[in-house]
Model the fold of this input.
Amino acid sequence: MNKEKTILDLSFERVHKRRQLVQTIIFSVVRMAALLSATGLFIVLYFIVSNGWKAISWDFLTQFPLDSMTKGGILPCIVGTLCLGIGAIVVALPIGVATGIYLNEYARPGKLLRIIRLGISNLAGVPSVVFGLFGLAFFVIWLGIGESILAGVLTLAALTLPVIIGSTEEALKAVPNTYREASLALGASRWQTISRVVLPAAMPGVLTGAILGLSRAAGETAPVMFTAAVFYTPYLPTSLFDKIMALPYHIYVLATAGTNIESTRPLQYGTALVLITLVLGMNFATILWRARLRKRMK
Amino acid sequence: MTSARQKKDKGVRILFFSVALTSIAILLMIVIFLFMEGMPIFNKVNISQFIFGHYWYPTSRPPDFGIFPLILASIFVTMLSALIAVPLGVMTAIYLAELASQRVANVVKPVIELLAALPSVVVGFFGMVVVAPFLQEYFGIATGLNLFNASLMLAFMSLPTICSLSEDAIYSVPVMLKEGSLALGATHLQTIVQVILPASISGISTAIILGMSRAIGETMVVLMVAGGAAMIPMSIFDPVRPMPASIAAEMAEAAFRGDHYHALFATGIVLFLFTLSFNILADYISNKYRQAGEASL
Done:
């Protein structure tokens, strides 16, 4: 017996078809948006890499700038950026890790914890140029350190602190509670548990945070403009109180205030390529490392 | 016997607690030093003249210290960048959390993370040498360094923040809600629009506010591509001078502890208050309107 389709069935079918159509259309718009967001990175990379690779040579990486920075290499900028980035991490890592440990292992929910967390999230939101102003007013002038690596390092350390706290906490959260309970049940004190069980287990995660912080510090421009970086210096730094050149600031200077902006384009692209290789390279390494860690945790 | 150990444990605890206060201490120091170096300008001009004054000529004689055009420029570039970044960011988040297969998501997510890691000076440089000439030619305008270009680049910089925080919010909506909706016969689209998005709206709002906060404080991009004219813009293709650009560009030439120097710090105070209120608002929303389900941002 053939069942006839009723009017109700037909109209239901039509509504269903229309809904499916609307869904298909809107989902393709959403897919396009995601595609657009992801291509952004590759467009920037394409332009920097395709224009920048011609400038890269052994000399470019190992020579000083020549002829009022219209020729030559960027060695002092690379050295300066590494000094600033590594220095910032040396200062920020112990403070950030200790804060992360307090927040995850000791703190109990309450008003005090809320205030500390609010402080950290607001510190993370302070504009980079305001960090520059703070570094200038406090480290350079008030403490009398002067424009120097040290002032730049301290300013960048303040800026990277929230990054390190965040990844430390994430790493500590990923350590299963059974580890802690087992250690405490064996009679270990809280501190013994943290220092010998929890922290070693969380170490890889903490280190990825350190690398992320390093890359963040290396890429910042505004905070070092008033505190550490100069247009040009013919020397490599020998002490913490020297002024230095830095890759991001060098790009800015060449692109906006150099003696001949158009003719130094290849140098600008080349410097930008070195900077993003450094920064994105570090980030990419942490992404791969994290993926591996996650797999192992499971 | 245990008392020595307990004492040590307590000591360690107190040590960690005091280190944990460092962030707040730094935040307070930032406020103190901004005000210390910024307040003296208000002996020369009063606060409302400073904020609502239409003319920013810090180096002419007599100088004019009115940052209204700078504030407006900051607000305009932030709003316009949000108009671009919010739909893109939220839709990308929906795609990642709801539509993408695990394999695609595993590729797209790191790409968005790397986008967030691009140094701002590189984005600014890209805007200067690639986007600006393109805009100039395509729209036939006087300069490609303008409000629109700056907003475009800022959208680019705030997109990762908006996208990844929104994705967390959408992802943490309990599966039960979704399944309930699908079981009632709703389509996937209806479920997303009428169940999942409303349930994660507080997290998404937080994401949007934090993205805008990042945009308004972003310095190198607006310094390099906004054009730098301290005027109230009449069109989106006018050059502008947002607050961070003004501070970064002029600090080097301002005489130490002169009026100009103090005025720049005072501009820093205004900028800081903007981002501070954005961040406090975001924190308030994410705490007040807890997400449906246990997971919250």
About this structure: DSSP finds eleven helices and two strands in chain A. The two ends of chain A are 56 Å apart (CA to CA). The first strand of chain A starts at residue 65 and ends at 66.
